[in-house]
Amino acid sequence: MRYIPHSEDDRRHMLASVGASSIDELFADIPKEVLERFEPMGLPGTSEIDVERVLQEASRENIRPDRVISFQGGGVYDHHVPSVVRHLTSRSELYTAYTPYQPELSQGTLTTMFEFQTMVCELTGMEIANASMYDGASAAAEAILMAERVAGRGRVLVSAALFPHVRRVVDTYCWAAGIELVELPYDDRGRVDRSAISRNVSGLLLQTPNAFGVIEELDGLKASLGDGLLIASCHPLALALLEPPGTFGADIVVAEGQPLGLSPSFGGPLLGLLATRGALLRQMPGRIVSRTVDIEGETGYTMAAQTREQHIRRERATSNICTNSALGALAATIYLASLGEVGLRNLASLNFHKAHYAARAVCRVPGVEPAFAAPFFNEFTVRTTLDPTQIRERLRAQGILVDPPESLAAPAAGGLLRFAVTEKRTQEEIDRLAAALQEVT
Amino acid sequence: MRTIFDRTPSDDVTGLLPTLDVPVDASDQLGEKIARRRPIRIPSLAEPQVVRHYTALSKCNYGVDDGFYPLGSCTMKHNPKMTEEVARLPGFAGLHPMSDPADAQGSLRVLHHLSELLGRIAGLPAVSLQPAAGAHGELTGLLLFKRYFERRGEAQRTRILLPDSAHGTNPASAALAGFAVTKVASGADGQIDLSTLDAALDDTVAGIMLTVPNTLGIFEERILEITARVHRAGALCYFDGANLNAFLGRARPGDMGADVFHFNLHKTLATPHGGGGPGAGPIAARDILADYLPVPRIVHEGGTFRPDWDAPDSIGSVHPFYGNVGVAIKAYAYLLELGDRGLREVSGAACLNANYLLSRLRGTYPLPYDRLCKHEFVASGRGVGADVTTLDIAKRLIDYGFHPPTVYFPLIVPEALMIEPTETESRETLDRFAEAMIQIAAEAASDDKLLHEAPHRTPVRRLDQTQAARHPVFTYPFAGASPREA
Amino acid sequence: MEYPKDRRYTKDHEWLKDDGGRFTVGITAHAAKELGDIVFVELPTTGSEVAAGAIVATVESVKAVGDVLAPLSGKVVAANTDLESAPQSVNEDPHGRGWILVIEATDPSEAEHALSAEAYEQLLATS
Questions:
Q1: Dihedrals φ, ψ of B216, to 5°?
Q2: CATH 3.90.1150.10 in chain B, residues?
Q3: Do both A304 and A413 map to the same domain?
Q4: Cβ(C74)–Cβ(C67) under 8 Å?
Q5: Residue A425 belongs to what domain range?
């Protein structure tokens, strides 16, 4: 097998050194009954050429991304990934490396993690950020667990306008931890109903922009929570145009980082961001990297505050997380470095203006109107007189893809449809969407 | 080491993005209450600056493509390059997770077939690909236990048993799943002692978490009796699959009494580690737990594949979509290429390499369990030099061009060195490593300064961990701002 | 090394010094050395009640966490907040400036179970 660099001679020599006469003898410690019960997978094995053929055929059974126009969103978007991102993350010193437990051999990984942490803090307005979580949904769930460790009230408020797929993960983690979730409804402007906020909670988790694309107002939320923690789940690109949650007193900020240079890839791997106040370091899950010096006084980077983590604290750790989304974090770092502040604002602007143009175009279609009178970034929701499932089907028949209505916040009133518009959507494509909607409704 | 923030910004770096092509309306404003005022201090750089910076950083790193990486229980084997190509195919990479199933038949087919294959490898049919890492799989598996006992009216089962050699994620996952942990001490032979196990088993135990072989590289020879006793006590068995490389293609956890098993695709199935992730930790469970698997499940009905949500007893979801699909595709390609014969060759060569290395180090390094090992073994640095620690040995290995093995784990061996060569190493590499270890032992006795001051030739010398702990700096200290210390 | 005779010791490597029913508690030089450079001490809240044998504080080095177990039951009446800015005092002077907390004992006679300095030195020699 071509990944095993042994010759027959090597095997003979090594077996002799071990004192065994065959490789099978090396399995004498496995109970015979277990070996006898074994059944194979049923695959014969094949060549690289055949594997590639099989996978190419399978990929062609999917829709071809270059043959459709995507207005899909829900946390995962069709953004341009700059070629430098793929080029640099393909360097094998970076992608075939392990977790940087030996820092002298891992300054590449560790320096980029330090950059990543810094960039996440810049975007979110928070003091410290970790080196990534699996995805934005588990990051939100772990933020709730963190708030519960800090405030200990056993109950957490959760916005009803979270993406359902985020809410599902939050529900599962909170069931595991025995935390009661109380849903905070949204009002007719599509924003959390502040009158329903109570102080006797460990925290409040809301999403902004939310599942309807509506930007929540964060001002004054922290004050209404008493010593409950404010957790904001954000869109990393939207933060280029929005005053970040840190300014409004958020305690923890989480986000899905896929828009920062990751392909949609049918929903994984993704990239979880988590940032918090410096005072909450000891309760924060995940790895974190610190700057330090070596014995010659040179600047270097190393994993720090490891006593929070599972390999030291075990059952008293802040989380069980070990493997994270390091390569995704590297991609995001390179992505942000290629854009810089100017490029990032420009990119966010493109998203914003194209989405607003689209919203106007789409709402000129009879029977279609904005669902909420509220500011949005690059995702917006409309109300239609026709069944949105049908609309989606008929758009799809024309090669125009939108999210299913079930991906809006439940219980979404019937007749809602959401569109996301990125920098990749041209005016022509947006006009085609409006025309198609016109036809369908 | 310089960061991107130390680079001099350039002026006009447009060209990456198009100009705005749609008309703008004056009402398209965010309003001053919410519009951003704070700067974002990421410099604007020209492409050559970005490329040089990260290329230089990559040369300060060490991956499996660079050399030997014998980290115990990490299985740092070669990452087949063909798998990178197929995962990147536009049909896979560009597919949105909320696509209509009719538009995703290729990906759904691959995930469905992979689930079948993993189920057969484990000998446990109910598979979920959602967990994004091994620890995530542990949490998911323990939540299956939790729901199982809930439904049976046995909610008093709140404890999980763990051997003292368990990896730290095991107790951490148990705690996250709402269980208390009870440690079970290993016997003198490094394996679970049956009478200690009996003493710990009662009707408050939900299950045991075992790594097989264990973190000493020893296969629990009484595994069938262990799992039988746990089952007789009404509890379940979770097997951590970090060490699957030891018996891949020769034995199945389902035949050993496991009820849930997790795979680490980034270990056994050769997907790259990425500097810490992403990985994937799919679980395979016995049929009695199938109802509780996360949703959605991928089903094959009437000739097509679709996500199925009809599972009222499911624990819910641990991932927003289908798990780390991009990683799963790589593992799938690896399994297709290897087939059954290839899997058998993997475990054969992995155990041969480990036992060979053990035989080469015997006599130079203490071997607390000097016996037939599986794919890894534990040595100790104790007594190698009067004033030399395992840490010093590890740092000196770097000077010889090797990544050190895992150090100070498992906790039950003082000054531990956990060594897992994997099957993708040549005898030549193993010999060079053994010679380096022997040479270092000699240096430890004659000139230990070489070890204490190691490493000598890396981009940075030994780093001050105490400073990082006492005075941490977690973000770049921009001019005019105080460093963001915790 | 010789351990100060003005106090008693536990097998978990804590020391306790009686001052009229109020016991100052810290970790021994042996424990501090085993842990390495101390980087953080998690102190109990003043006024909290503790049971003998329960974890009352933790001492962290870069790579390890040491639990400080209450050597007797009582109420925490003081905690050494100097350790917040100078955790290294535990390494530099574990039996003096590195003190961790003070317990007002409910039953001071519980201290009699602890070891004398000689007995503790003996314990270290044989382990």
A1: -90, 0
A2: 341-460
A3: no
A4: no
A5: 65-81+340-440
pTM above 0.90, yes or no: yes
If asked whether residues A69 and A98 sit together in one domain, one would say no
Inform me whether the pLDDT recorded for A307 exceeds 90: no
Nearest one of B29, B473, B17, B482 to A340, comparing CA atoms: B17
pLDDT tier, A410 (very low <50, low <70, confident <90, very high otherwise): low
Contact C69, C50 (CB under 8 A): no
The pLDDT value recorded for residue B403 is 97
Query: Using CA atoms, how far apart are residues B425 and B354, in angstroms rounded to an integer?
Result: 10
Contacts of B415 in chain C (CB under 8 A): none
CB B249 within 8 A of CB B347: yes
Tell me the nearest-neighbour CA distance from B406 into chain C, angstroms.
14
Determine the Cα–Cα distance for residues B200 and B187; give it in Å rounded to an integer. 14
Distances (CA, A) of B478 to A269, A288, A292, B484: 32, 19, 16, 9
Q: B96 to each of A69, A271, B93, B100, how far by Cα in Å?
A: 12, 15, 9, 9
Helix (H) or strand (E) holding B395: helix B390-399
Q: Nearest to residue B315, comparing CAs of B172, B171, B168, B149?
A: B149
CA distance A90 to B84: 9
Residue A27 to residue B247, Cβ atoms within 8 A: yes
| Tokens 């995805």, located at residue | A135
- Cβ within 8 Å of residue B75, ≥6 positions away: B242, B243, B245, B264, B267, B268, B375, B420, B422
Residue whose C-alpha is closest to residue B100's, from A393, A265, A165? A393
Whether A73 and B375 have beta carbons less than 8 Å apart is answered as: no
| pLDDT > 90 fraction of chain A, expressed in percent and rounded | 93
Please list every residue in chain C whose beta carbon sits closer than 8 Å to the beta carbon of residue B408.
63
List, for residues B185-207, the tens digit of each pLDDT value.
999 999 999 999 999 999 999 99
β C8-9/C14-19 pair status: antiparallel
Question: Which residues of chain B make contact with C61, given a CB cutoff of 8 A?
Answer: 469
Q: Are A317 and A309 in contact (CB under 8 A)?
A: yes
For the domain made up of C8-107+115-121, give the CATH fold: OB fold (Dihydrolipoamide Acetyltransferase, E2P) (2.40.50)
Same domain, A261 and A375: no
Count up the domains in chain A and report the number.
2
Give the pair of three-digit tokens for residue B409.
């784990």
Domain borders along chain C are 8-107+115-121
pLDDT tens readout for residues A122-134: 999 999 999 999 9
Shortest CA gap A307–chain C (Å): 7
ipTM of the assembly? Answer: 0.98
From A4-8, A139-143, A297-301, B12-16, the region with the lowest mean pLDDT: B12-16
Residues A140 and A202 in one domain: yes
Residue of B12, B471, B170 whose CA lies nearest to C86: B471
* Measured distance between the N- and C-terminal CA atoms of chain C, rounded to whole angstroms: 15
Q: Would residue A48 count as lying in a domain?
A: no
Find the farthest-apart pair of alpha carbons in chain A and give their distance in angstroms, rounded. Answer: 83
B486 touches chain C (CB under 8 A): no
Cis peptide before B410 (omega within 30 of 0): yes
Residue corresponding to tokens 């931890």: A177
Residues 6+ apart with CB under 8 A from A83: none
Query: How far is residue B140's CA from residue B128's CA, in Å, rounded to a whole number?
Result: 9
CA distance C63 to chain A (A): 7
Interchain pair C63, A306: CB under 8 A = yes
With a CB cutoff of 8 Å and minimum separation 6, the contacts of A217 are: A191, B33, B34
Asked if A338 is an interface residue toward chain C (Cβ–Cβ < 8 A), one would say no
The CATH number that domain B341-460 falls under is 3.90.1150.10
Domain at B82-337: CATH code? 3.40.640.10
Are B285 and A109 a contacting pair, CB within 8 Å?
A: no
User: Is the Cβ–Cβ distance between A302 and A290 less than 8 Å?
Assistant: yes
> What's the confidence (pLDDT) of residue B480?
65
